[in-house]
Design goal:
The chain has helices at residues 30-37, 44-48, 99-112, 130-137, 155-160, 187-198, 214-226, 256-269, 309-320, 342-347, 360-366, 369-372, 386-389, 399-406, 416-435; strands at 6-9, 12-16, 22-25, 69-73, 116-120, 143-148, 166-170, 178-180, 183-185, 202-209, 233-236, 271-272, 329-332, 337-339, 353-354, 438-439. The protein has 444 residues and is of the alpha/beta class.
Amino acid sequence: MRKIPFQVNEGGLVALLPNGHVEFLANSAHPLILRHNAGRAVPAEELMAHAINDPLVTLDRFHLSAPAIAFVETTNLCNLRCKHCYADSALKRPDEMSTPRIKALLDEFAEQGVLQVFLTGGEIFSHRDAVEIVNHARTKPFSTQIFTNGLLVTEERLAAIPPGQSFFISFDTADPERTVRGRMDFPKLQRAFEAMRRHGHVFRTAISVHRNNIQDAEEIFEWCAERGYPRPQWLETHPVGRALLHPNMLLRPEDVDEVFEVYRRCMDRYSTSPESLPDGEGGTGAESGGGGGAAPARRAADEIRGVDTIQFCQRLERAVGQEKCGRSVVYVNSRGDVYPCSNCMSGQLHRAGNLAERSFADIWETGFDAFRDIRFSDHTVCGTCPVAAEDIWCQFRCPPLAKNLTGDARGCGATEYLQEFMLRSGRYWRERRRRDIRLTLTPR
């Protein structure tokens, strides 16, 4: 039985419940959580009875008592050289944290009530002690996720990690090693995915979309669908990190018609509507992938433990009108430098401190004051934005992205292409909600 990670805040407790939900709870839930963590299970439903929707918090420099989500770079060393890499990963940074220091940081996170930790790089499996670090994290109450390109994953490493580890695997530069009947194939990733299943692990996939790979995106979605792998997450490439050195990679306004049609077909491939669902499946069933010869027998995609920390952080930023980064999210690079997020780290902006000089708790409490003074209302350009006019939620009131694009940290962080794509995708999802069409991890 997993312990419930939780933290004490001004407005109540923030906890990751056994059902994967993250909620503000009244202080009356405290003894129940302690009872659960002592080995006497408390159902999530009983804890949810203590949920509060309107916690009383101070809006001035709002932040949780500890991050809900913490990203930790174990190393900047990487076996790939992605042209759009936000972290400029390649070689180790000078003075990277030692393995004992990384493990001590994970101990601090557990003590302070961090809910979810993403272990990343570089490429995490470029680190000689990657398995040791992952296994140490797995002893803590927080949920542990691993970001990897999957190409250094081996049977030996997977066997050494306790079953149930969640992996997030990127196709960003996993160029197909060969084609099958003129179609893309990823034999190394397929071997990694099947090995993860054999060892009881779960995984998701992702693709960072840019001008160089938009033609590949649909084939990657189809490749996953045919093999019963979970739906890839569609990620937009932003003007940050190495992408600033390769501006021709960024999608342009004239690309939006083509890109959105690809996006729509990819999402429709992993969608279900009420009339298409077998009785009792309730929107989570899926048919086997088809096309391209002998498709495998129907196989449900791996079950991903629902952890809605990101959605919780997004709910918070809407409620308080302030960016989630530096308030409920933090990024620690491999040197121990602490930033609000990966975009800030990439531009070396709003560095709050270094772990060699101060404790993480001290950095989190006092190091982000200037960043926390920035509110959504300071981005005055939003008043004339068509995205805001259609009440579509925008993630680009982002100081580092805005600074990269306009030179003004309180400007707009979305390119002209991204603004148009947000308008189209916002309308698309609004119509799907109206028709009760649901996106699933499993292929249609």
